[in-house]
């Protein structure tokens, strides 16, 4: 009993890349740079989507939601990771670990649902253009967004609560970059079969099902686009959808690798880089993909910048 309470009293040692000091220093700079860019880029998308009336459409409503999720998701991991990497003391309080566990799990699950919703929005826009505004009406968009956030909250409460019930028997060393369910399951000193099965079922619901829906949506989109007579229309449709698909492949691919395998069989160093991909890198790809390849967003940014410049000159 005394050993079981050690982790809650003393917290955890978040090892990260401490066994490779040179790599840790390089990654610190890269992660800091990527994190700042991610905050700036996603904040810009939120501001542009809210301030420009032309972007008050379902696509940009969901994109704004995605930026909110990405900002919160990467912020739940990056600051703590950077603090830990910058000092010799790798200690992380038990409360901070628990908070990070719940928040990161909830936001990650929400993004899994949201990307599937965005695929459905693209399906409606490309395959049902005449009925698009009728299908994606404001009430449906609000309901889908609420479902996304609520789904993440529920799975986080269930999954994390079950994981925290596992006795750790005094084990404090987390050989990972943040407090994550598979890592804590590996740390447990009892049979974790039930937790692994439960994690697998949750992963199927929040990973395999959304991916299947996304692939089905893009299958219909591809058929519709190939039937278009206009080459310019085909290019525009493929350009709009390819950005979303690229985001989907990177995000789901890395998370599936991390979660859809036995918790105690994954490579630790590989798992760290995989986690870096979907917690640090993917949130940056959102603004890059949707701004560099989207004329509407680039035009809105130019309009806002020029408008602010004119206001400043008059002032």
UniProtKB/TrEMBL annotation:
The keyword Membrane is assigned to this record: yes
Cell location: Cell membrane
Keywords assigned by UniProt, alphabetized: Cell membrane, G-protein coupled receptor, Membrane, Olfaction, Receptor, Sensory transduction, Transducer, Transmembrane, Transmembrane helix
Topology relative to the membrane: Multi-pass membrane protein
Residue ranges annotated for the G-protein coupled receptors family 1 profile domain, each copy included: 41-290
Highest taxon above the source species: Eukaryota
SUPFAM superfamilies found in the cross-reference section: Family A G protein-coupled receptor-like
Matches recorded under InterPro entries: GPCR_Rhodpsn, GPCR_Rhodpsn_7TM, Olfact_rcpt
Record field: transmembrane: 26-48, 60-82, 94-120, 200-221, 242-261, 273-292
Task of the protein: Putative odorant or sperm cell receptor.
Protein name per UniProt: Olfactory receptor
Taxonomic source organism: Vicugna pacos
Biological classification of the source: Eukaryota, Metazoa, Chordata, Craniata, Vertebrata
């Amino acid at each position: 009993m005394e050993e079981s309470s050690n982790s809650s009293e003393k917290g955890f040692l978040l090892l990260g890349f401490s066994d490779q000091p040179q790599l840790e220093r390089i990654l610190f700079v890269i992660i800091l740079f990527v994190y700042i860019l991610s905050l700036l880029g996603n904040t810009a998308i939120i501001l542009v989507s809210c301030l420009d009336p032309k972007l008050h459409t379902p696509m940009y409503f969901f994109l704004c939601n995605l930026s909110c999720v990405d900002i919160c998701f990467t912020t739940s991991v990056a600051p703590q990771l950077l603090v830990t990497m910058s000092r010799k003391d790798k200690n992380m309080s038990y409360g901070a670990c628990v908070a990070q566990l719940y928040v990161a799990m909830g936001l990650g699950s929400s993004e899994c649902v949201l990307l599937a919703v965005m695929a459905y929005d693209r399906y409606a826009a490309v395959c049902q253009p005449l009925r698009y505004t009728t299908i994606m009406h404001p009430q449906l968009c609000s309901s889908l967004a609420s479902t996304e956030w609520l789904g993440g909250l529920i799975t986080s409460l269930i999954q994390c609560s079950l994981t925290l019930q596992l006795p750790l028997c005094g084990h404090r060393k987390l050989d990972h970059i943040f407090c994550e369910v598979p890592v804590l399951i590996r740390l447990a000193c009892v049979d974790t079969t039930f937790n692994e099965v439960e994690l697998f079922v949750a992963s199927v619901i929040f990973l395999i099902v959304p991916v299947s829906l996304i692939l089905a949506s893009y299958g219909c989109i591809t058929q519709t686009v190939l039937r278009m007579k206009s080459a310019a229309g085909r290019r525009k449709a493929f350009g709009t959808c390819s950005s979303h698909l690229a985001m989907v492949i990177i995000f789901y691919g890395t998370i599936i690798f991390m979660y859809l395998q036995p918790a105690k069989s994954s490579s630790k160093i590989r798992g760290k880089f995989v986690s870096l991909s979907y917690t640090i890198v993917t949130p940056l790809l959102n603004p890059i993909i949707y701004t560099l390849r989207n004329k509407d967003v680039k035009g809105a940014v130019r309009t806002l910048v020029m408008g602010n410049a004119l206001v400043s000159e008059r002032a």
